[in-house]
Amino acid sequence: MSIVSIVLIALVALFFAAMGVYGLLRPSQLTDPLGLLADRADARAEVRAVYGGFGIAIAVILGLAAADVGDVRVGACVTVATALGGMAFGRIWSGFVESPSAFFPVWFYLVLEVIMAAMLVLAVTLDP
User: Are 122 and 8 within 8 A, CB to CB?
Assistant: First the structure.
């Protein structure tokens, strides 16, 4: 596997790792820019699960893909790229039905999701 593919996958893994750690340790702060309140234990548990635990799990599988462990590279990259594409689609849909008010956070994360999905697709394309 080329160094470019490894770096592309590792960068996306690092993003998910950072999001996961932040979600686990600071769930209320993670949701603040979104205007969501994580002011109850149940809400913080949900943020820890969806942003924290899920982010860590994605980082781990992408870490395995970057290290070329087993046969997970293509499947992990395609799966995560598809999930990121689905998230981006949801943001585009929101633009049609509700017109979010500012570039951050909705459109900023849309751009980030599209870039990260493209990075993973490129990583797989470079080394099929």
Answer: yes
CA angle 67, 123, 53 (to 5 degrees): 60
117 by Cβ neighbours in 10 Å (0-12 / 13-18 / 19+) ranks as: buried
Question: Which one-letter amino acid corresponds to residue 6?
Answer: I
CA 68 distance to own-chain centroid: 20
Model pLDDT for residues 23-60, shown as the tens digit of each residue: 999 999 999 988 899 999 999 999 999 999 999 999 99
| Long-range CB pairs of 83-88, under 8 A, 24+ apart, other chains included | 83/58, 84/113, 84/114, 84/116, 84/117, 84/120, 85/113, 85/114, 85/117, 87/113, 88/113, 88/114, 88/117
